[in-house]
Amino acid sequence: MSYLFRKTSLAVIIAGGVSPVLAADLDIPMVIEEPAIVQPYAEVREFGGWYIRGDVDYHKSKIRGTEYFTYGAEPCPDDCGDPDAWTGVGGTKSFDTAALKSSFSLGAGVGYQANRYFRTDLTLDYWFKSKFRGGTSDEGGYSCGGGDGPCESVDRSKMSALLLLANAYVDLGTWNGITPYVGAGIGGAHVKWGDLINDIGGYEQRHKGAKSWRFAYALMAGASYCLTDRTVLDAGYRFSRIEGGRMFEKNGAGPGFDKGFNTHEVRAGLRYSFGGSANGCYEPQTVAYEPPAPIYTK
């Protein structure tokens, strides 16, 4: 009996020691899963950099005045009538009337978008020929060709120009793909006048047109609209001022000078960005936050 008891006790002791070891070996780790948290964030995308542009405009230039030199009495041509009738007052005279017709221009440029609110570009615009029409009258009351009235003329010419400007713009923010802006430019204009036809009582006299570089500046305001992520439609208004210079050369009277132009322009064109999305032409994308991998613990 005592022998059986000793064997039974030994078996119980051995079983008690082995059970914890087996339990440890069979222990299964618990998985703690983090809940998925939806947390939106704005996608970061590059924008700006270099861009090119092309523009077309319709403009109206107001000439600020014209004047020319006279040189006193001069002999009249054979077909002018009374040789004593054609005289000059001497000094400087202004045109009684002077006006330029409206015209169009084409332009191109290259620029750089520094950040969301500031950009610069260099533009070159060609102004197609604008017709000029003016008139003069003899203040001394002299008649032409034996007529009763004072000597009057009708003057015709054409003016074209190249306008080169370095510009800076401030973009004021973007709403629904529309970005308003203001800007200013400074540079020069190469103004070319055609020959001036001076018609006095049916007698035409031609004065060779002049050309010269002049100082110019501009102020502008407008807005751009996103067509694609890199292409925008740009439309706006520009006021440009070109300083005065020589208009025509001497031929009897002259030379003549214009006092410059104030020009109002309605412009439209396209800009294409190479460095990334054009300014304001993308909406930040909202994406769900991705949870980390499950954490295993014992």
TrEMBL record:
InterPro entries: Beta-barrel_OMP, OMP/PagP_B-barrel
Origin: domain of life: Bacteria
Signal is among the record's keywords: yes
Residues annotated as signal peptide: 1-23
Annotated Outer membrane protein beta-barrel domain residues: 46-274
Key words of the record: Signal
Pfam families reported in the protein's UniProt record: OMP_b-brl
Name used for this protein in its record: Outer membrane protein
Native source species: Aquamicrobium segne
